[in-house]
Structures are given as structure tokens and as C-alpha cells.
Specification:
Blueprint (H helix, E strand, L loop, with lengths): L5 E4 L4 E5 L10 H7 L4 E5 L16 H14 L5 E6 L1 H12 L4 E7 L14 H11 L1 H11 L10 H8 L4 H13 L13 E6 L7 H10 L3 E6 L6 H4 L1 H12 L1
Parallel strand pairs: 2-3, 2-4, 4-5, 5-6, 6-7
Antiparallel strand pairs: 1-3
Helix pairs in contact: 2-3, 4-5, 4-7, 5-6
GO molecular function: hydrolase activity
Organism: Notoacmeibacter marinus
Protein name: Alpha/beta hydrolase
Length: 250
């Protein structure tokens, strides 16, 4: 397995940022700049996405998790705070379940414990059909609009689409299959590290029942619900997002 490309800045305790479906390390540019004042921030590109678009995508959440832990092992990172967004939150749960001693704190952002998401804005099977029919660029333009409360007019929408367009079609399809096959509910009770669940109350991908399952199932958990925000909270309300994270990480 080839080492993943990544963005890295700062010194101090390590903070790892894992992007979600049709995302990339570049979506965390502001967070990297801000948190690198006090932390060693590492943001990988998942196989097939962002700067890793020339590589085949992984067909399982566990495979994506192994790609990230391999990178961290090669960088000599033994312990870290781990944040996962959307599909990246599934990957983060997988890493935390398999390497509980390595994950000092866990942040599950806009995600849930089940990959086949109930009440998603559209079924994963429909997304798969439309990726095949429309291609990646049209898919991220369409899906990305659902990640903001203000849709295509939202601040950050254009940058999100630009990053998502880089994904290769095979990886986009493989990731949908990976999410559909993944279920992390049985592992929640074993996630003993301090955990923050953060969610925008207008998120159309991960509805409240998913968030509630995380909140009730993880033993040492805090919940932050942000009003008037959707799935791309870090772009919609960046100052509030970073303040919430900093309070928890400290």
C-alpha cells in the first residue's frame, strides 16, 4: 500500500483531520493554518481523492482506516487526537476501535455509526447510479449543494466543488460501496476515549437518529449541536466550529 499524500503544519500534540466523501485534505486549509499555532496538524488525502486521485480507491472503510494508520506509523505518530468528517467519521470510528490506545481524543463531525444512512437526502444506491450517469464533477456540484443550508449560494461551496472534482470515478463508486457495507454500532461501547460529536441541525446526510445513537452509545461523549448549519459546518460557521473544537481538544 503506497503512502498517502498529506498536508502538515505546526508543532505540538498531533491532530489528524480525515475528510469525507468527495473531499480532500485541502478542505482543511483554514483549520490547518489555525490549529498549527499549537498543534502538529496532519490532513491525509484518502486513496482516490484530492492529491491521491491517481490511486485506486478503497472499497471498505477498514481499508481506508489502514491507509491512514500506515501513514501515521511511517510518520512516527504514536498518539493523536482524531477528527473525522462524514465518511471520514466512519473511518475515525474504525481507527479508534482498532487502536484505542493511540487515539487520545475523538471528534466525530457530521457523521454516524451506520454507513447505509437512514433518511439521507437520497439513498446511496441512487447516488451510485448518478455518479455512473453524470460523472464526478456534476455529482459533487449537486451533492455538495445539499451540504450547505444555503445551497450553491453558501460561502465555501465553490471551493468544496473544486476539491471534489479531483476524485477519480472508481474511488467515488468504491467509497459509496464501502459506506453501504459498514456498520460501527457494535463498537461504540468500546470507544472509551473522550469523544465529541458535533452536528449541524440542518444536516441532510446524517439525521438526528444517527447522532443520537453516537451520543447514547459512546461512554465518554459530549455533544455539540450547532443551529442554522448543515453538513459543511466548518465552511458555514468556521469561527464557531474552530472554537468548539479548541475547547474540547484543550
Amino acid at each position: 500500500m503506497e503512502t498517502l499524500p498529506y498536508l502538515r503544519a505546526g508543532r505540538g500534540p498531533t491532530l489528524v483531520l480525515v475528510h469525507g466523501y468527495l473531499g480532500g485534505a485541502a478542505q482543511w486549509e483554514r483549520e490547518i493554518e489555525w490549529f498549527s499555532r499549537s498543534y502538529d496538524v496532519i490532513a491525509p488525502d484518502l486513496p482516490g481523492f484530492g492529491a491521491a486521485a491517481d490511486r485506486p480507491g478503497e472499497a471498505t472503510i477498514s481499508g481506508m482506516a489502514r491507509a491512514i494508520t500506515k501513514l501515521l506509523d511511517e510518520l512516527g505518530i504514536d498518539t493523536f487526537t482524531l477528527l473525522g468528517h462524514s465518511m471520514g467519521g466512519m473511518i475515525a470510528q474504525e481507527i479508534a476501535a482498532t487502536r484505542p490506545k493511540a487515539v487520545r481524543k475523538l471528534i466525530l463531525y457530521g457523521t454516524g455509526p451506520v454507513g447505509l444512512m437512514p433518511d439521507r437526502f437520497e439513498p446511496i444506491a441512487v447516488s451510485r447510479q448518478r455518479v455512473q450517469r453524470d460523472g464526478v464533477a456534476k455529482t459533487i456540484a449537486r451533492i455538495g449543494a445539499t451540504w450547505f443550508k444555503d445551497g450553491e449560494r453558501a460561502r465555501g461551496y465553490g471551493r468544496l466543488v473544486e476539491i471534489g472534482e479531483r476524485a477519480n470515478p472508481q474511488a467515488a463508486l468504491a467509497a459509496l460501496d464501502a459506506m453501504a457495507a459498514w456498520d460501527g454500532r457494535q463498537a461504540l461501547g468500546a470507544l472509551s476515549m473522550p469523544t465529541l460529536v458535533i452536528w449541524g441541525d440542518s444536516d441532510r446526510s446524517y439525521r438526528w437518529p444517527q447522532i443520537e445513537t453516537l451520543w447514547r452509545g459512546i461512554p465518554n461523549v459530549d455533544l455539540s449541536v450547532v443551529p442554522c448549519a448543515s453538513h459543511a459546518l466548518h465552511l458555514e460557521k468556521p469561527d464557531l466550529f474552530r472554537a468548539i473544537l479548541l475547547e474540547f481538544i484543550r
